[in-house]
């Protein structure tokens, strides 16, 4: 019975302060939305996926069997450590700071044809290397900053792994991810006997931020402020020991209610004694001194 009464009392408190709880919950949701949308800087993500296979010299047969594939999967943890190494990220930092020029034409040596008499005739003249300035955006990022932006993930029993980059700018995230993939592809041959590195998907700028989660912040603000308001009202009601109705006296002390005496507040400027007023004669021009004399006579 006590549990029923406690639940009923709880429900009464909710009904009594329902409007206040709803209003505060809406205010909390609006505050959470505003913080996520206008206060916290958005974070963008870009990723590129890669596939690495060992060279044919590392296998006993031309066709890799299941054990070789499993060995390649185990090596992904090694690739993760290599990607975030100072050797790879140092090259990435330099390339982002000073992008290499775009090669329009590779340098070529002149080609000659030897004639029957031993003389040589020029067939193709030599060509100089022609480049043009890079159109890539320059970024000044240290190795430590790059490490904090990069994470590597892969699915179970898969040789494909992804290089994920988070940044405050979508283009920056895509540029860093692609540059890390290119640097790793160029340097992996010097670390291990691997000559088969493939970039499956290049990173693209995604203008949809991954953080903060606006819906989650809105829901959190609604729940937190609404819950705190409910707890405040609950504590306030439970700590109030005043008697609010005759029924509470009967339930608490087991007394019988014989009647109710109403309380009448005193009325200001109210008196029970009669007030006598003397009417003044209308249009009386008799002087005050004469009226006093007539009264004495």
Automatic annotation (TrEMBL):
Lineage per the UniProt record: Bacteria, Bacillati, Bacillota, Bacilli, Lactobacillales
Name of this chain's protein: Capsular polysaccharide biosynthesis protein CpsC
Bilayer topology: Multi-pass membrane protein
Localization (cell): Cell membrane
UniProt pathway: Capsule biogenesis; capsule polysaccharide biosynthesis
InterPro entries from the UniProt entry: Bact_polysacc_biosynth/exp, LPS_length_determ_N
BP terms from Gene Ontology: polysaccharide biosynthetic process
Region Disordered: start-end pairs: 278-297
Cellular component GO terms held in the UniProt record: plasma membrane
Polysaccharide chain length determinant N-terminal domain span: 5-96
Function summary: Required for CpsD phosphorylation. Involved in the regulation of capsular polysaccharide biosynthesis. May be part of a complex that directs the coordinated polymerization and export to the cell surface of the capsular polysaccharide.
Main subcellular localisation: membrane
This protein's record includes keyword Transmembrane helix: yes
Membrane spanning residue stretches: 18-40, 216-235
Lyase among keywords: no
Keywords: Capsule biogenesis/degradation, Cell membrane, Exopolysaccharide synthesis, Membrane, Transmembrane, Transmembrane helix
Molecular function (Gene Ontology), one example: protein tyrosine kinase activity
Record family assignment: Belongs to the CpsC/CapA family.
């Amino acid at each position: 019975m006590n549990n029923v009464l406690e639940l009923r009392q709880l429900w009464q408190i909710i009904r009594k302060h329902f409007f206040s709880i709803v209003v505060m919950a809406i205010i909390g949701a609006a505050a959470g939305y505003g913080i996520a949308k206008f206060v916290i800087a958005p974070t963008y993500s870009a990723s590129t996926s890669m596939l690495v296979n060992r060279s044919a010299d590392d296998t006993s047969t031309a066709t890799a069997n299941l054990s070789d594939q499993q060995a390649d999967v185990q090596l992904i943890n090694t690739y993760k450590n290599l990607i975030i190494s100072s050797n790879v990220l140092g090259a990435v930092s330099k390339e982002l700071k000073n992008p290499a020029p775009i090669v329009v034409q590779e340098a070529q040596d002149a080609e000659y044809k030897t004639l029957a008499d031993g003389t040589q005739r020029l067939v193709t003249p030599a060509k100089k290397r022609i480049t043009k300035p890079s159109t890539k955006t320059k970024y000044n990022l240290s190795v430590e900053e790059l490490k904090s932006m990069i994470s590597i993930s892969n699915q179970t029993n898969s040789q494909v792994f992804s290089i994920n980059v988070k940044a405050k700018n979508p283009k920056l995230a895509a540029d860093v991810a692609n540059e890390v993939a290119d640097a790793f592809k160029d340097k992996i041959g010097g670390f291990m006997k691997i000559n088969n590195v493939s970039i499956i998907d290049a990173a693209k700028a995604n203008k949809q931020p991954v953080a903060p989660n606006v819906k989650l912040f809105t829901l959190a603000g609604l729940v937190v402020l609404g819950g705190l308001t409910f707890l405040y009202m609950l504590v306030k009601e439970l700590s109030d020991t005043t008697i609010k109705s005759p029924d509470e006296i009967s339930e608490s002390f087991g007394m019988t209610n014989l009647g109710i005496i109403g309380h009448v507040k005193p009325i200001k400027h109210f008196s029970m004694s009669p007030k006598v007023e003397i009417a003044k004669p209308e249009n009386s021009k008799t002087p005050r001194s004469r009226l006093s004399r007539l009264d004495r006579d």
